[in-house]
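May I ask for a single protein's sequence together with how it folds?
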Amino acid sequence: MRRARSGYARRYAQTRGHAECFRFLSLQNEDLSMSQKSKPKTIVGITWYRPDQYDAVRTYCEDRDSMDATYQLWKAGVEKAMRELRSKGNEVVPVDFDLDEFKMWCSANGKHPIAKSRSAYTVQKLRDSNRS
């Protein structure tokens, strides 16, 4: 079952200035066994850019000005966000972002290359990997 992004995540993105670093949608882990009585973990998919593609991703995306200027700045921000999310009990999963694959995904889904699309692409890849 898919849940909307939590208020915590939205506030964190707005106040920390690293919105794209960890734009995500929380997913309930559908693969937990029925015998498990504890609350299901929330899986948080983090868009993980490749160092050699980051500049090209920024160039391609329409909202490049909202992204961190360098891979190093992006990585520092996302690593901090991941630590905070893990400290709250979330399972954080970095999801590989391939620019060529993203371009094809945008074309196939009629999406513009903006943050919302990068998030949807990340969520789709996370769901696909959980089904495999």
Summary: The longest strand covers residues 42-49. Confidence is low (pLDDT under 50) at residues 1-36. The longest helix spans residues 71-87.
